Amino acid sequence: MNVDMDKTLKRRILHFFFPNRCPVCDAVIGAMDTFCDECSGKLQPFTGSFTIKDAAGTAAAFVYDRNISPAVMLLKNGVCGNAAYALGKALAVKLRESGIAEKADIIVPVPLHKSDKRIRGYNQAFLIARELSDELGLPVGEGIVIKSRRTHQQKRLNRHLRLINLKDAFAVPEASLVWDKSIILVDDVCTTGTTLGKVTSLLLENGAKAVYCAACCKTPALKKTSDEENPVQQNLTSTAK
Ligand SMILES: [Zn+2]
What we know:
Elements: H1 3-17, H2 37-42, E1 57-63, H3 69-76, H4 83-97, H5 100-103, E2 106-109, H6 114-120, H7 124-136, E3 146-147, H8 159-166, E4 170-171, E5 182-190, H9 194-205, E6 210-218, H10 231-235
This protein binds zinc ion (ZN).
Zinc ion binds next to helix 2.
């Protein structure tokens, strides 16, 4: 039995006992569905582009807005439900369309600090990475990058403080695992891109061949005059990095 059949069967059996639900509105949906039709129609696919310093490419599935935020909250708050599957599957489509998937060797989730992971019980970026792995047939490199100290929430800081906040916050314990590898670095939401940029630089310093940054959701472009006054962002009750 191949991985796809195995996963399909598991989802169908699970669906029999615990019906699959839309991660936005909680309506019951089919075992292999991602969102209900109504929510699906409201979600805004990310069609623009964004750059992360030193990254060879980027991809995002949705614009981060009020319509998608319940799914992201579900993913972050421990009631995972169908959120990782729905968001991961949409991101896998973008990674295939953009040509990034075929260039990559490994998927690396943005890590949480071990004490944050203990509190939450899991790393939401890892859940997305695992879905991407199933869809794209690439291995997940959990632990390839670790978060070596806790940091403040990035969204409350200006650009200067964001960079200071993340200084030496990440580490690659075993450089041989990234040497000459093309890596998809994955996170749930990309806001300013500071975290993805920091980890990208670190992977390249440790010998990675190329790093592609992927996020399920990308916040709308920030205003140039004051990047802390984006109304959409402020109204989202998010812990986005
Ligand atoms: Zn729905």
